[in-house]
Design a protein that fits this description.
By secondary structure, the chain is mostly beta strands. Helix content is 0%, strand content 55%. The two termini are 29 Å apart.
Length: 122
C-alpha cells in the first residue's frame, strides 16, 4: 500500500526555435522522478520514474451568434484534427477531443467565448 509520494524533479525537452502556438498544437515527453514510501518502512523510499506526454498551453476564441428568438443551451465539442485535403470521414478515428462545454444563449445574443487548456473538461 502506498502511503505518500514525493516528486524529486522532472525533465522537459528544450525547444531552440520560436513556436507558432497560434496555429499549431505542440506536445512533449516529460520524465518525472518520485520517491514512494510504503507502510512497511517509512524511512526507505522506492525510487520511481514516470514518462508522460504533456502539451504546451493553448487557448482558443469563438464568436457565436444565436439568431433565433428562444433561449437555448449549446454543447460545444472541440477536436484536434489532422490537416488533410482528404474528406474528414477518412480521418475520423484520429480525432482527439480537447474540450467539451455548455453555454447558454438568449435570443439574438452574441457571445465571445475564450477557453484555455486549463478550462478543458476532458
Amino acid at each position: 500500500e502506498v502511503v505518500s509520494t514525493q516528486s524529486t524533479g522532472y525533465h522537459k525537452k528544450r525547444v531552440d526555435k520560436p513556436l507558432d502556438t497560434k496555429h499549431h498544437f505542440y506536445t512533449y515527453r516529460e520524465m518525472k522522478k518520485y520517491k514512494v514510501y510504503t507502510t512497511n518502512n517509512d524511512q526507505e523510499a522506492i525510487k520511481v520514474k514516470n514518462a508522460s506526454m504533456d502539451h504546451i498551453p493553448y487557448s482558443f476564441n469563438l464568436k457565436v451568434k444565436h439568431k433565433n428568438r428562444g433561449d437555448v443551451m449549446v454543447c460545444f465539442r472541440v477536436f484536434l484534427v489532422p490537416e488533410s485535403d482528404e474528406p474528414l470521414d477518412n480521418w475520423r478515428t484520429m480525432f482527439i477531443e480537447l474540450d467539451k462545454f455548455v453555454e447558454s444563449f438568449k435570443g439574438g445574443e452574441t457571445k465571445e467565448i475564450e477557453r484555455s487548456d486549463k478550462d478543458s473538461s476532458v
